[in-house]
Amino acid sequence: MITNLGLATVWVLDQDSAKEFFTDKLGLEVRDDMTLGEGGMRWVTVGAKDQPELSLALMIPGPPTMDPDSAAQMRALIAKGVLGAGAFNTDDCQAEYERLSARGVEFVHPPQKRPYGIEAIFRDDSGCWYSLTQTFDELDETVPWNG
């Protein structure tokens, strides 16, 4: 029986830069930063302090998970900014938007009311986009989906 999600992959172009972005700008904590075996791949994970059961693996496309052609295609998609990597929840979207903006986080859209909550969209330093969402207890169908 599956009980929860424990690890999610975030594809990045540079692990050092991504680690800095997720910790210094977003405020997540480093869980792991090691090399797996002699000459092996680097394993970097981060996560929210109050959510120890879920980590984000900051992975560079390439071996051993991808062949060179697939890795090149994935790097191109990351750099193009077309990959969405998930949603971060917050209790106050406007305040978190202001805090993260002051730390240099690039927002594509400022907070906007949606049927499911208040949402802002930002990019990480590799180009992947994320939702920053303050969810409503109930769906508000009077709010248009397109803001």
List strands and helices in order, with pairings.
Blueprint: E1 7-11, H1 15-25, E2 29-35, E3 42-47, E4 55-59, H2 68-80, E5 84-89, H3 93-102, E6 106-114, E7 117-123, E8 129-135
Parallel strand pairs: 1-4, 5-8
Antiparallel strand pairs: 2-3, 3-4, 6-7, 7-8
Describe this structure as you would to a colleague.
With 147 residues, this protein is of the alpha/beta class. It is 23% helix and 35% strand. It has three helices and eight strands. The chain has helices spanning 15-25, 68-80, 93-102; strands at 7-11, 29-35, 42-47, 55-59, 84-89, 106-114, 117-123, 129-135. The strands form two sheets. The chain has a four-stranded mixed beta sheet. Strand 6 (106-114) and strand 7 form a beta hairpin.
* Spatial order of the strands forming the largest sheet: 1-4-3-2
**Cα distance spanning the termini:** 39 Å
Mean pLDDT: 94
How would a textbook summarize the main sheet?
Answer: 4 strands, mixed
Supply Rg. 17 Å
Helical stretch count? Answer: 3
Q: Based on DSSP secondary structure assignment, what is the total number of beta strands?
A: 8
Gist of the model:
This protein is of the alpha/beta class and 147 residues long.
Keywords:
alpha/beta, globular, 35% strand, 147 residues, four-stranded mixed beta sheet
